[in-house]
Amino acid sequence: MSAARLSRAAGPEGTTAGGSSATTTGQPRSTSPQAGLPPAATSTASGVRGTVTAGPTCPVQRADSSCPPRPLQVEVVAHDSTGAVTGTTESGADGSYAMSLPPGYYELEVPSQGGATRCAVTEATVEAGKVTRADISCDTGIR
């Protein structure tokens, strides 16, 4: 993957493409060719699944005070090794998402949400008949 592709994916402009499908409350929305992964994926299903979270959530974290990352409900875009958009989905209110993708290498990005929160581009390799776990971490900018 070229450095130009990586910097574009991580940039604040957050490129997206493709249309969108109807959203069911609490369920991920997907415009990938196979839509979202079914709850009981068959042995031929392949794709990615994970959680999108943002942290830190407190300006000063202390040992006696938990300050866990918070889930984000955002769009997740999959780019193949050429940089082409191969699917999109939206994470649920709990931050979870799932997307059916054919076997291959992907970079998952969350387009810029505005403000200080920036999400890292996450790499995932999908194997035939397997669902790859790919959690996406976002930085809130709180220090």
What does this structure look like?
With 143 residues, the protein is mainly beta. Helices cover 6% and strands 33% of the residues. Strands 1, 2, 5, 7, 9 and 10 form a six-stranded mixed β-sheet that branches. A hairpin with a 5-residue loop joins β3 and β4 (85-90). The termini are far apart. The model is unreliable at 1-35 and 37-42 (pLDDT under 50).
Distinctive features:
elongated; Immunoglobulin-like; mainly beta; six-stranded mixed β-sheet; 143 residues; disordered N terminus; single chain
Could you say what the CATH architecture is? Sandwich
User: What is the radius of gyration computed over CA atoms, rounded to a whole number of angstroms?
Assistant: 15 Å
Give the overall silhouette: elongated
Largest sheet: 6 strands, mixed
The share of residues in extended strands comes to 25-35%
CATH domain class: Mainly Beta
Structural class: mainly beta
- How many alpha or pi helices? 1
Low-confidence stretches: 1-35, 37-42
List the helices and strands and how they pair.
Blueprint: H1 3-10, E1 47-55, E2 70-71, E3 75-79, E4 85-90, E5 96-100, E6 104-109, E7 118-119, E8 122-126, E9 131-133, E10 136-139
Parallel strand pairs: 1-9, 1-10
Antiparallel strand pairs: 1-2, 1-5, 3-4, 3-6, 6-8, 7-10
